[in-house]
Backbone:
């Protein structure tokens, strides 16, 4: 019992010392939180403009059908429309103020009424396929709405019956915020733990630690605890802020699964960070390597995108990255109030965390032996 | 007043000193050279997903009209299609390998021929609004394309497209240029910044500050050394883009010239950052950690005039944006703003000069405790 108390006291003391050192270096705090926070900011900034390209609408037809089509284009949530004359539209196009010019020609109504081919002219600046394909999808969507407004007389007999797997669409910004929170946890754990571990060798304070009565196990646990505490606190803070702002809002009992996953990801990244710091033993290189590893882990699980859109080889690799399971568990709990596959995900994360902590301890033990 | 000759001697001495330092740490220098390539690979993972929704089509009818509808879907610029049975499709969507299932009913051909209503089932894994809305719009595109070919007298309204460029450029070749810029940024800033910061960490800046050499000459020498090392990294990255990613630049002279200018710019700002932070660890970590947000903030996806005003404002402040503009012109002959290449290049040069001037001011105002 006394031995256990001494062990815990030593580990906690080392953790407190490392936390104080970390907090006294604002640059270390900055490099831990800035990358993910900056990405969250970018995410919030860009979410609003997704899918609505600026276009110029030129109305040359005064008939009812032309007016109807123009109204559909203006009111549909497809474009940011600027009404223009042909000359104005060309000026906007040349000045890169619009992606495309949509022209409803002068004889549009007559042609539609005569069941003759009627064209909507679309002049597109097709330098980027993303914008271009948005326009290519949006114009036929407007045409479909035009025909649908004819009700039973519509010549389009094909209709779609949509069934969604999820009960609600998640806004892109909210959906992207979840993996960014995971990135924040990984960066925090990796950077803070690796710096704490490497710092002992670089500043040669490892000798004092070895000469102290604290056991090697307590020293190693203290290092892992540092990363775990900073990461978990940061994660809970960001989650709390996200909840207040309405980005991510776990409900009821799902807060528990969210906190559990958060803790496991924190433990995993802390263990990995200690291993990195103990192996490299140099502060300068460890910070950069930690960030690069965090980013690779993040992107190998699909980043903020849906993994199904990635090539098959990347989808396969993702299944071997523990963060993939953490991200899935958080998405299910937060967006869909579901514990779908939670057991599997907790098992993988817990196993990975234990493995990472084990690796960290092995690396530290090797370093400690060499330092004696 | 120092003579020009003296100043040049100082620049040359500092350059040689830093190059010798780099040679004495070959591993670190090698890592610095391949760092831009590392960033390129990392960023490529970010953009590799593209915008085509993986979708299974369950063809309960395989008549000619059903096949035409399948073809219309495949040409809708929105899907990666695969045919599957209903059970296979259920399994695929459950496993997260596809995001939508389209069910063409058994009586599809018969109903279309008899001008009867036909319902096509669509099951969507609506994880987020972005791709879900893309799918919702792509299906009407498929329907109008289908009718335009199968029943041209029924649906007479069609879009008639005229493109600014003869062919669409793929997502990855387009984004390769902003990724190149980010790679040059990280490589240039880390190399120059660490060279500046190490003088403070090792306190050798004392000797430099006490010497009669001008601050500007010292910084210029260090920047030039970082520039020469960064050239190696830039060469590696360009070789990768051309040989592995298959990018064929349109204007080679512009490509080389603007690459050198961009590298010099980020060397200047790296020197400023290194001089200000005085520590290598936060400098390198920040430069790498912020590369992804800076990528997104700098208008990588097209002319920023297509985006929201706040995004335009943010992008215009960042030198990365202007670097993307000039290099997109060099590589793909794209015009991303109406300022002209000359003005964009001048802005980049101004940023480079600004970085150097600010770094000199920071050095002047810095002291080192005994």
Residues:
């Amino acid at each position: 019992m006394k031995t256990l108390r001494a062990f815990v006291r030593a580990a906690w003391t080392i953790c407190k010392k490392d936390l104080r050192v970390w907090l006294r270096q604002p640059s270390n705090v900055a490099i831990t939180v800035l990358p993910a926070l900056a990405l969250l900011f970018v995410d919030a900034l860009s979410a609003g403009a997704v899918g609505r390209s600026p276009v110029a609408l030129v109305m040359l037809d005064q008939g009812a059908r032309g007016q109807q089509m123009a109204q559909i284009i203006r009111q549909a949530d497809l474009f940011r429309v600027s009404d223009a004359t042909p000359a104005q539209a060309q000026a906007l196009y040349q000045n890169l103020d619009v992606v495309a010019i949509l022209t409803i020609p002068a004889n549009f109504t007559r042609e539609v009424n005569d069941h003759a081919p009627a064209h909507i002219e679309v002049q597109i600046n097709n330098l980027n396929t993303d914008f271009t394909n948005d326009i290519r999808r949006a114009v036929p969507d407007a045409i479909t709405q035009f025909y649908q407004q004819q009700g039973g007389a519509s010549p389009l007999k094909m209709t779609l019956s949509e069934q969604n797997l999820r009960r609600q669409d998640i806004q892109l910004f909210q959906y992207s915020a979840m993996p960014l929170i995971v990135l924040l946890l990984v960066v925090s754990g990796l950077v803070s733990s690796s710096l704490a571990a490497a710092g002992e060798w670089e500043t040669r304070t490892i000798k004092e630690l070895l000469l102290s009565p604290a056991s090697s196990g307590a020293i190693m646990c203290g290092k892992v605890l540092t990363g775990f505490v900073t990461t978990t606190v940061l994660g809970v803070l960001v989650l709390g802020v996200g909840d207040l702002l309405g980005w991510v809002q776990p409900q009821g009992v799902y807060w528990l699964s969210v906190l559990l996953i958060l803790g496991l990801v924190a433990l995993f990244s802390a263990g990995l960070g200690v291993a990195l710091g103990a192996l490299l033993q140099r502060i300068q290189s460890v910070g950069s390597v930690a960030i690069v590893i965090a980013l690779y882990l993040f992107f190998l699980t699909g980043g903020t995108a849906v993994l199904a859109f990635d090539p098959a080889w990347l989808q396969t690799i993702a299944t071997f990255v523990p963060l993939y399971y953490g991200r899935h568990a958080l998405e299910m709990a937060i967006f869909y109030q579901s514990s779908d596959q939670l057991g599997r995900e907790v098992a993988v994360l817990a196993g990975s965390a234990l493995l990472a902590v084990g690796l960290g301890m092995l690396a530290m033990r090797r370093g400690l032996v060499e330092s004696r | 007043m120092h003579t020009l000759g003296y100043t040049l001697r100082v620049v040359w001495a500092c350059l040689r000193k830093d190059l010798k330092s780099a040679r004495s740490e070959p591993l670190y220098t090698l890592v610095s050279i391949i760092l831009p390539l590392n960033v390129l690979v990392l960023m490529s993972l970010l953009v590799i997903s593209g915008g085509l929704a993986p979708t299974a089509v369950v063809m309960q009818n395989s008549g000619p009209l059903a096949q035409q509808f399948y073809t219309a879907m495949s040409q809708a610029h929105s899907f990666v299609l695969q045919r599957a049975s209903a059970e296979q499709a259920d399994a695929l969507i459950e496993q997260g390998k596809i995001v939508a299932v389209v069910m063409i009913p058994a009586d599809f051909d018969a109903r279309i021929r008899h001008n009867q209503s036909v319902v096509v089932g669509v099951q969507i894994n609506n994880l987020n609004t972005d791709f879900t809305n893309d799918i919702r719009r792509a299906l009407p595109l498929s329907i109008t394309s289908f009718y335009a070919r199968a029943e041209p007298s029924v649906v007479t309204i069609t879009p008639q497209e005229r493109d600014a460029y003869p062919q669409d450029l793929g997502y990855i070749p387009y984004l390769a240029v902003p990724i190149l810029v980010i790679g040059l940024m990280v490589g240039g800033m880390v190399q120059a910044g660490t060279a500046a910061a190490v003088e403070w960490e090792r306190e050798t800046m004392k000797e430099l500050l006490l010497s009669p050499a001008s601050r500007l000459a010292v910084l210029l020498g260090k920047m030039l050394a970082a520039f020469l090392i960064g050239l190696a990294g830039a060469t590696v990255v360009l070789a990768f883009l051309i040989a592995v990613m298959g990018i064929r630049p349109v204007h080679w002279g512009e490509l080389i010239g603007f690459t050198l200018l961009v590298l010099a710019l980020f060397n200047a700002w790296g020197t400023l950052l290194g001089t200000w932070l005085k520590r290598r660890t936060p400098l390198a970590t920040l430069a790498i950690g912020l590369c992804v947000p800076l990528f997104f903030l700098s208008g990588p996806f097209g002319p920023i005039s297509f985006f929201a005003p706040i995004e335009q404002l943010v992008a215009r402040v960042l030198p990365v944006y202007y670097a993307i503009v000039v290099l997109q012109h060099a590589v793909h002959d794209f015009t991303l703003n109406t300022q002209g290449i000359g003005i964009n290049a001048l802005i980049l040069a101004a940023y480079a000069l600004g970085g150097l001037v600010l770094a000199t001011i920071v050095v002047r105002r810095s002291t080192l405790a005994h």
About this structure: Chain A touches chain B through 107 residues (CB under 8 Å). Chain A is about 70% helix and 10% strand.
